[in-house]
Amino acid sequence: SSLNSCSAVLASDSPSSPSSMALQLLPSTLSVPKKGSSMGAVAVKDTAAFLGVSSKAKKASLAVRTQVATAPSPVTTSPGSTASSPSGKKTLRQGVVVITGASSGLGLAAAKALAETGKWHVVMACRDFLKASKAAKAAGMADGSYTVMHLDLASLDSVRQFVDAFRRAEMPLDVLVCNAAIYRPTARTPTFTADGHEMSVGVNHLGHFLLARLLMEDLQKSDYPSRRMVIVGSITGNSNTLAGNVPPKASLGDLRGLAGGLSGASGSAMIDGDESFDGAKAYKDSKVCNMLTMQEFHRRYHEETGITFSSLYPGCIATTGLFREHIPLFRTLFPPFQKFVTKGFVSEAESGKRLAQVVAEPSLTKSGVYWSWNKDSASFENQLSQEASDPEKARKVWELSEKLVGLA
Ligand code: LMG
Ligand code: NDP
Ligand code: PMR
């Protein structure tokens, strides 16, 4: 079927490498102190999970060759998700995927991978229109395979304007990818969004939360066979992994800072209410919110709507713009460190193919899953940390976020 051939673009080209010496030094059972628990420690017995890799490899489903369509068909807004070709065969219409932050890194690579199949029209939702247009051209994306639309997640007004503009464009919405993010690793003082929320959580979580909530209506209207919402998570927000234990560790605490609006002035800019601001922790906390939000969407809407909600850790894409604010020494050493020491490095192109799988691969329709990949690029359902999978915390984050973005 034409749906199955979507997997064509997802062929893996990464060589499988032997497991790292560094990683072999890890003990098979590791005690990680658990903050705020009288139980004292959580034993992490599964070393493979702790390192963010699976012990089982699933290679077969990915062994398909890349196929590039030269002339993507125009987006159809006709009510049927299929159209009859001259031969009388039903063919799937082009899907429409909105990707936030598609002007660089993972978002751009995924946009390119999807557009190249000819099966997807990519709406690049970006804060810098010109940068996004240039990036799409430089990446070789064909005219007509994408639309750039303005979205600044640091402003809730901009989010609402994007939704209006998207609806006026009269495209269906088949998949939403919440990918954009900022990381302020060296910041000692917070900066704030237009709405007065700390920037990292404001952009990475709250802006996306409003966007995703508003666009649920559009996803529900879509007649596409597999409608999905994907929120990009990360290993560094998961304290059941080695990477998630590099200080500062993510922890949302009792959410008192979030309840206070992360406004800094009258209270804390940190979700857990800590008085001292830590940019690296704020980023990791925002990723925990992203992963909790995906699961809460799943619990509230999957059964009723059939929409697939998922998150992923795309691998360590050490060369992206995410590290633009880090010190030069870090930016120089981080890629070789990830390549040769942790072996968690992936290229932007490879990470883009992974995200494209979560968007389009027919085998990845399971909802509520946090996807990760082995070194040979086979996907597997990964385990989230205790905090990042806590349903009570997810509900509270949802309810507090609703208030902050004006939905409740
Ligand atoms: C903070 O520093 C910054 O302060 C903050 O601003 C922000 O950037 C944040 O997460 C982002 O990082 C992190 C800093 C502190 O870690 C470092 O990067 C320092 C580098 C230390 C060098 C280690 C040697 C590794 C060898 C690699 C050689 C190549 C060098 C490349 C380096 C590139 C940089 C990545 O971190 C610390 O406090 C110390 C580091 C702790 C390690 C964390 C492991 C957690 C452990 C929990 C489980 C224990 C596992 C034990 C395994 C034992 C095995 C025998
Ligand atoms: P990049 O910095 O390359 O891309 C981030 C994108 O987000 C850019 O397009 C950027 O726009 C956009 N963005 C930033 N702020 C806003 C805003 N206010 N409104 C709209 N868009 C905004 O980083 P990555 O590609 O690495 O990051 C993509 C995702 O991957 C993030 O969710 C990140 O957390 C996640 N991730 C990254 C990992 C890595 O190793 N790099 C590992 C795990 C997860 P502009 O181009 O204008 O700056
Ligand atoms: Mg980390 C298996 C080991 C592993 C992996 C997969 C990552 C991913 N990192 C690992 C280990 C380590 N890192 C170790 C042992 C150290 C101490 C030397 C280390 C340090 C480190 C720093 C300082 N790592 C970092 C930083 C960052 O500033 C990045 C960060 O935390 O951003 C929030 C980062 C990352 N390491 C990763 C990944 C994927 C990141 C980046 C981004 C992200 O989560 O989105």
Provide the descriptors you would attach to this structure in a database record.
408 residues; alpha/beta; eight-stranded mixed beta sheet; two-stranded antiparallel ribbon; 13% strand; disordered N terminus; binds 1,2-distearoyl-monogalactosyl-diglyceride; binds NADPH dihydro-nicotinamide-adenine-dinucleotide phosphate; binds Protochlorophyllide
Set out the fold topology.
Elements: H1 21-24, E1 30-33, E2 41-44, H2 47-50, E3 82-84, E4 90-92, E5 95-100, H3 105-116, E6 120-126, H4 129-138, E7 146-150, H5 156-168, E8 175-178, H6 199-221, E9 228-232, H7 256-259, H8 279-305, E10 308-312, H9 328-342, H10 348-360, E11 369-373, E12 379-382, H11 391-404
Parallel strand pairs: 5-6, 5-8, 6-7, 8-9, 9-10, 10-11
Antiparallel strand pairs: 1-2, 3-4, 11-12
Can you characterise this structure?
It is globular, with a radius of gyration of 21 Å. It has 11 helices and 12 strands. Helix 3 packs across helix 10 (348-360), helix 5 (156-168) runs parallel beside helix 6 (199-221) and helix 8 (279-305) packs across helix 11. The chain is α/β, with parallel strands linked by helices. The termini are far apart. Residues 1-45 and 55-79 have low confidence and may be disordered. The protein is 34% helix and 13% strand.
Describe the structure in brief.
By secondary structure, this protein is an alpha/beta fold. Helices cover 34% and strands 13% of the residues. A hairpin with a 5-residue loop joins strand 11 (369-373) and strand 12.
Biggest sheet record: 8 strands, mixed
Bound chemical compounds: 1,2-distearoyl-monogalactosyl-diglyceride, NADPH dihydro-nicotinamide-adenine-dinucleotide phosphate, Protochlorophyllide
- Number of DSSP helices? 11
Uncertain runs with pLDDT below 50, 5 residues or more?
Answer: 1-45, 55-79
Q: What characteristic shape results from the CA principal axes?
A: globular
Mean pLDDT: 84
